[in-house]
Input
Amino acid sequence: MSAYETVIGLEVHVHLCTKSKLFCSCPTTFGVEPNTNVCEVCAGMPGVLPVLNQTAVEYATRAGLALNCAINNDSVFARKNYFYPDMPYNYQISQFERPLCEHGHLDIEVGGETKRIGITRIHMETDAGKNIHEGDHSYLDLNRAAVPLIEIVSEPDMRSAEEAVAYLKALHAIVVYLGITDGNMEEGSFRCDANVSIRPKGTVEFGTRTELKNLNSFRHVQKAIEFEVARQQDVLEDGDKVIQETRLFDSVKGVTMSMRDKEEAHDYRYFPDPDLVPVHISEEQLESWKASLPELPAARRRRFMDEWKLPEQDAEIITADRAQADFFEAAVALYSEPRKIANYMTGPMLREINQTGVALKDSALKPEALAELAKIVDGGLISAKIAQDIFSDLYAEGVMPEAYVREKGLVQVSDTSAIDAAVAEVLAENPAEVEAYKGGKTKLVSFFVGQVMRKMRGKANPALVNEALGRLLK
Output
């Protein structure tokens, strides 16, 4: 058992999905040709003046409201001064002394217990451009420069990599539910820096922290923190001191590597941006934005469990994505069997998402089709096995299940004479198993059912198969 306690705080950067950048009208489209979404303003040309994107302010405020923050009606943009090739101004427009949102919190579930993680602040800022290194040449793409970001800074309240990941997943679900970001981690729309330190158990004073930069997947966050905690323990146990520095995570080797000594905040020489007036949010705007907040994931999960008696795990899977939760409610409104709808969504639908990489919102499956599928299985038109077998086609092609199974000849056989004949054939073909069954091995009934279903190509009504076996085995 370790003698040290881990202390973790996260700084999460979220791309706001506005149509234009934070201070100019350039589009924020991802993946276009380098340096096509650039103008004099976001390229930092002399003499140009920025104009604030009002939608970005609304999106940032909505995040603060959803995360229980106090909203400052008046906030100020500042210049964060540092030089790096992908920062065309030679400073970043950010917020320092008077951020937009402060003093919030987010409750997470870890190991069956609820823990509250404090949120220090949420401030707005511009993203940097992108350096591209090829051989002995370096190129600069400014398409991403000045795309609007919010940075969500937590308190150092997390004590394990598991808690950090739980916090990140809960935060990701909220900002995507709000519709303020697409949350695409591979494209950098949601990424985080982790401040990690350790201290002897029972002490209050924080240890020296290191900052792990640009972690862009939940798995990388987990692995990077676990490695860094172990590395810091080894350093202290060897009698050395942990130094404050910025480190990068090598996901191939699974290790963190030193990048640079960490600069303190005063090294950035913050001062109010003289080209930007203070941001003012009226009480009317604040109340309007608060009223427009959607039902958030945790509340929706609790409602699904209370109203429809879904198991917690099913409710968590379904509500983790807003599109999935909306789909579920639409399907239940069409066929009021929530547990059965949920079983399809957490079973074959989740299988399709994992195997194809196509999210539900991008698939051809419609709530009407899922509701009809559950209905025709309950009505005996097809078996549960056939429903599983055709799900891939429903997901990819968007066909309605009743018409599809009739066209393909997959309708369940409920003709008792045909089923009796198939059962009789199976019993005749397996005399040893019949004798064993009569000798007390009654579990062999599942063997017989399987043989009959195979003979009838999965189309026999299982209830009638079991009834026929009961009669004929006697």
Summary: The chain has three domains: 4-287, 295-408, 416-472. The first helix runs from residue 54 to 66.
